[in-house]
Amino acid sequence: MKLHWVAIPFALWLAALGQANAQLPSPDRTLALWPAERLADGPALGPERVGKGGSAEGAVSGVSQPRLEIYKPAHPNGSAVLVIGGGGYFRIQVGGAARPIAQWLQAIGTTAAVLYYRLPGDGWTAQAPFQDGQRAMRLLRAHAAELGVDPQRIGVIGLSAGANLAGIVATRPDFAFYPPLDASDAQPARPDFVGMIYPVVSLRPPLNTTRSARELSTQADAADAYSVEAHVDAKTPPTFLAQAVDDPIVAVDHSLLMFTTLRKAGVPAELHVFERGRHSWGLGAPGSTVSAWPRLFAAWARSHGFLGGAPAAAAPAAEDGGG
């Protein structure tokens, strides 16, 4: 019955995406991450820009007011997910990736929050997006009661550079990316579960060929500070990974490295490698193999007791003594 309930909304959602004029849900509210005076010394930016056409379609840049765009379901299941779009730290794939994923989560009963974060590509420091990610997790917990969310069932899904940001928030929750501002900063920053989709994991050679590595390189120790695999330990949250072998932007080796590192640390992890899909698929085009990832992620998260599900009982393994 639970699997049937998951499949129906997802199928309807993909059908809606295929209609150019589909009416998609609007956010219920917007939550500013910082008071305006905290951002006064940032770069001089004009209004936010939204890309039109090609790979920039729906991508946001020029973020000067970092915030959360919150999607609350009619019948919350008690879980929440912070959704972080990618874009190489010079833009954020909101319209084609982060927002549709948030709306899918909303459709299956999960409260979702799209993160608009400051970009080094706009002149902010390399640390700025990590400050925003850490603050966002704490604010979600601080507002958990009013959102109908269990503060111990708040996860994160990041895509591409957004997965790098999600991974650092998950693996460095106790690092002070910024001095405490208010009572919200007493909340834990560690997400309870993590989804990393076509992720930028490492900024170290030989995987330092991404735009993310270039944009973060303004910080001298960025390769060590923001390579996710360097910070994995036994306290890292359960992690789901998905990527395509033919990804031309971020080598699949990023996901393979992350999975191997998690496994060595004893962290529960699941990896899905698709033969085809390339990069920046968001939810995935209807009918494509990569479009299976949201269903796989939901099943995985429910098996751990997230997204409203109860942990699955482990079945005894059959052993035949062979190898």
Please give a quick description of this structure.
With 323 residues, this protein is an alpha/beta fold.
Question: What this model shows, in words?
Answer:
This protein has 323 residues and is of the alpha/beta class. The protein has a single domain (2-17, 49-303), classed as Alpha/Beta hydrolase fold, catalytic domain (Rossmann fold, 3-Layer(aba) Sandwich), CATH 3.40.50. 29% of the residues lie in helices and 15% in strands. The protein contains nine helices and eleven strands. The protein has helices at residues 2-17, 94-107, 128-142, 144-147, 161-171, 211-216, 222-225, 253-265, 293-303; strands spanning 29-32, 49-50, 59-61, 67-71, 80-84, 92-93, 111-116, 154-159, 194-197, 239-244, 269-274. Strands 1-4-7-5-8-9-10-11 form an eight-stranded mixed sheet, with helices on both faces. A three-stranded antiparallel sheet has the order 2-3-6. Helix 1 packs antiparallel against helix 9 (293-303) and helix 3 packs across helix 5. The longest helix has 16 residues, at 2-17. The radius of gyration is 19 Å and the shape is globular. It starts with a helix and ends in a 20-residue tail after the last helix. The relative contact order is 0.13. Residues 1-23 and 313-321 have low confidence and may be disordered.
In CATH terms, what is the fold-level topology?
A: Rossmann fold
**Biggest sheet descriptor:** 8 strands, mixed
Shape descriptor: globular
| Number of distinct helices | 9
In the CATH hierarchy, the architecture is 3-Layer(aba) Sandwich
Strand order of the largest sheet: 1-4-7-5-8-9-10-11
Beta-strand residue fraction:
15-25%
In sequence order, what are the helices and strands, one letter per element? HEEEEEEHEHHEHEHHEHEH
- Give the beta-strand count: 11
Can you say what the CATH homologous superfamily is? Answer: Alpha/Beta hydrolase fold, catalytic domain
